[in-house]
Write a structure and sequence with these properties.
The protein is mostly helical. It is 72% helix and 0% strand. The termini are far apart. Helix 1 packs antiparallel against helix 2 (58-79), helix 1 (30-52) packs across helix 3 (85-113) and helix 3 runs antiparallel to helix 6. The protein has helices at 30-52, 58-79, 85-113, 117-130, 134-144, 147-176. It has 6 helices and no strands.
Length: 179
Amino acid sequence: MSVEEPEVEVAPPPILAPAAPPLVISFHNGPAVRIALSMGFLAFMCLIVAGQLALPQALIFVWLAAAGFLAVFLYRRSTGQRVSVMNGARLGWISGIFGFVIVTILLTLFVIALSEPSVVIALREQIKTRGIPEANLDQMIAALHSPAGITQAVGLFFLLFTVLPAFGGAVGAKLLDRD
């Protein structure tokens, strides 16, 4: 008599779902937008603090780049995803766009306020207490009363608030990608 051994069925290996690709850094990426908005606001606040404390103007450039760097750091920390240099630049750029929008809104309100003579008088008094030459204020007011001056101011803010945070984001992605 021969005893047949029962056939053992071998279960097929489990099918693993492919790993989800990292989210693209864009305005459709919720975590990226939240972090970018907070870093854009931080960049704006740094601009205000530098102006109020009469800090060296060069710190503005450093803080704007640092906002992009910090955005990449916070994004990596909150999502656990690696960020490529291109996506780091995008995240920094989005941060800068949010900061630029805030600055543009406040610049618009400031230009509107300058049409009121009492605001100009109050501004002159404040400038005198800080020891800033009144000629600087006159030059700024004249520039903000002309379309060309407003365009130059908006263009300068756009460049500062987009290029520097994008650079900081790219550097942040490169430096933080090292294991």
